[in-house]
Specification:
single chain; alpha/beta; Rossmann fold; 2 domains; six-stranded mixed beta sheet; 5 helices; 8 strands; 23% strand; FlgO domain-containing protein; FlgO_dom
């Protein structure tokens, strides 16, 4: 009986560790910004339907400020990355631009695909679809539009609008100079 006792304690400890890990995940997913970004990805997947093949190679650009499309922020970069996380969890394949040095990457602005044609991007990175987005800052919310654009013909496969609360965290992430 005493030999089973240490095994019982080990199983109990592992169970408690697993439960506490779930609380951390639940807290992260309960964050309204992360939740809204993940739901936006699900919305895009649903809207695109059969037009979006999970085996398609995809790129993601930092989301840009609608009032100045050459300007992004930490929020624009993280919003894009959080959508990518949700897409990847569903089995979609993204080419990581942060690891490539032949795409324009400005340390203060993020990866922008606005100044280049989609056909150039498609050829250079063998990408079928690009995730792009814009955001507008209002008094209480940040309004975001995320789109999936097919690179071969610039057709919008899906577009999803959503809002995230304009909290002190968001104010900090929206500062132009974060570096």
């Amino acid at each position: 009986m005493t030999r089973q006792h240490p095994l019982f304690i080990l199983v109990l400890l592992l169970s408690v560790a697993g439960i506490s890990g779930c609380k951390t995940v639940a807290r992260t997913l309960g964050n309204p910004v992360i939740t809204n970004n993940h739901q936006a990805a699900q919305g895009l997947i649903g809207i695109a339907g059969d037009q979006l093949d999970p085996s398609s190679r995809m790129l993601a650009a930092s989301f840009a400020n609608i009032d100045n499309l050459s300007l992004s922020s930490s929020f624009g970069r993280i919003a894009s990355q959080q959508l990518v996380s949700a897409f990847a969890a569903e089995g979609y394949q993204f080419v990581e631009l942060l690891l490539r040095n032949n795409v324009y990457v400005d340390q203060n602005q993020g990866e922008f695909l606005l100044s280049r044609t989609l056909s150039d991007i498609s050829a250079e990175h063998n990408a079928d679809v690009v995730l792009v987005g814009t955001y507008a800052i209002a008094e209480r919310n940040i309004y975001v539009t995320a789109r999936l654009i097919r690179t071969r013909d610039s057709i919008i496969l899906a577009s999803h609008d959503y809002a995230v609360p304009y909290t002190p965290d968001m104010r900090r992430l929206l500062r132009p100079e974060r570096w």
